[in-house]
From TrEMBL, chain B:
This is Branched-chain amino acid ABC transporter permease. Its main location: membrane. Keywords: Amino-acid transport, Cell inner membrane, Cell membrane, Membrane, Transmembrane, Transmembrane helix, Transport. The chain crosses the membrane at residues 6-27, 60-81, 93-116, 136-161, 182-209, 229-253, 265-284. The keyword Transmembrane helix applies. InterPro entries: ABC_transp_permease, BCAA_transport_permease. CDD domains: TM_PBP1_LivH_like. It is found in: Cell membrane. Pfam families: BPD_transp_2.
Amino acid sequence: MSEMQKKMSRNTKSNLITYGMVAAAFLIMQSLISMDRISYLVEGLMVPVCVYVIMAVSLNLVVGVLGELSLGHAGFMCVGAFTSAFFSKCMSDVITVAPLRFFLALLIGIASAAVFGLLIGIPVLRLKGDYLAIVTLAFGEIIKNLVNVLFIGKDSDGFHFSTEGAMSLNLKDDGMVILSGPQGITGTPRDSSFFVGFILIMVALFIVTNLINSRDGRAIMSIRDNRIAAESVGINVTKYKLMAFTISAAMAGAAGVLYSHNLSTLIATTNNFGYNQSIMILVFVVLGGIGNIRGSVIAAVVLTLLPEMLRGLSNYRMLIYAIVLIVMMLFNWAPKAIEWRERHFSFLKKKKEAVR
Amino acid sequence: MSFISYLINGLSLGSVYAIIALGYTMVYGIAKMLNFAHGDVIMIGAYVAFIGMSQAGVSPVIAVAAAIIVCTLLGIVIERVAYKPLRNASSSLAVLITAIGVSYLLQNTALLVFGANTQTFPSVVSWGGITLADGAMNISGVTIVTIVVCLVIMAVLITFVQKSKPGQAMRAVSEDKGAAQLMGINVNATIALTFAIGSALAAVAGVLLCSAYPSLTPYTGAMPGIKAFVAAVFGGIGSIPGAFIGGLLLGVIEILGRAYTMSQLADALVFAVLIIVLLVKPTGLLGKKIQEKV
């Protein structure tokens, strides 16, 4: 029993460190911004950093906790971004209180991403391993492509839909085009802020860390470790897989809401909602440590800011980014490198064990 | 008439996908990894052939040969430096992310060396093609050459894997690495050979792709790479005939989709067909069923 209590307290301590770290980082950045010590470019990156942190934490729920590889996570972000931006643009005249409008948009973005997560999860989670990965990638691409051919307009008669073009919506004079195919949604009210992003990160962290340490979370992890054993002790595999997948999709939807309300023009391209983005987020998760939530947060922050820090190197920065990525992966994961680290830094490890 | 010409164009694009998918599927079969950098090897191959033809002014045959040699060496080096150290890593995701890193590296190296401008690729096939039905239908030379090259590669590869000693070694390694080693097979050399063949095929695919669709940028390889990966999964990843069938089907679906539905939805259609196939046959058309041991 005391062993159990000790373990629980270690979990709680670890979670508190994560929360504290995020809060401290937020306070430091916020005070630096208010003192004007930070360049305009870096200040503009604060909301994207929050978006990627939430994405990394939510993908870690699928990859690290559930143990399935998803390559279509940006698709859920896309759903959240477009549904919420759609709502905000429709309601920009009706609801003038920005925080209320953003909150409602957030709920809508989360709910629609969760519905997509559930609908996609039901067929997808029957597949295994790399097949599952490619199907999630396919769904992500389909969502992105569909958004790019959809035109939606609004006038006094209600909503008009088309896949042909803005002209074929046949809007009346008082109408306006809301979603304009490849041109996306323009004029979304910019309701996101660094503070909102920080709050969303804290909520996401709270949900994930509590889920991991709950009965449901242990059921999910048991499926990851051995599906057949989990099934044979009576764990409903489909239910728990869907649960993790849907929660993760909902969180990606929240990140999408944050993302879309930070831009006045929202368009779906390969780089923001395509497989490139999904892969980028997977890089955060793997580099930060699969299943390690705090690691995901750190990796997302560092890797989002890294290209900016390397800006002085102009054309070479993405090259250096690629090399850093490869070297870090080799150093972290290659069995030879791990052996070498243990030989040369064994004193660090011993110290840790002594504390334990 | 137009349907037949769409079909032939689809088969031609599908042949390119099939050649790329062969590289994916062989590497997956033997190393159990998704080589995300494969698409960018295609792009490097196309650039080498492009430089050879338009700047060095050599004949297309020499340019293609140079592209094949460069890509083969590149494939071996990538495997040796970036993938081999991670072969026994505790998570299979590690090598996947490293492959993504290699993909970024190749793209950005190409960006620095060749520039971001779109280059117009001169076709390697100067033959004008054939005209059928009194000029109502014209099949370009590139189309025919692409389909023929794909069929030849397919036949040679199947014979190689089934009959030759190195081919048998490849099958043995993909079946069971440990047992293959005990039988005296040089596992490292066999895996390197697989990467070499896959990358050489990528060079051929790059040249053929750019001959048919002549715009070349450092990102040219990314989307065909993903599509070919889909084709490999479609046919059952790890299976060589599967990659062939998957590639051809994908090309035909894409071209017909582009012709008869909205062109922006062609990619979505390709992915939708993949999803349906995988839901009915979870390991692809010709994939092996994996038995689960308790």
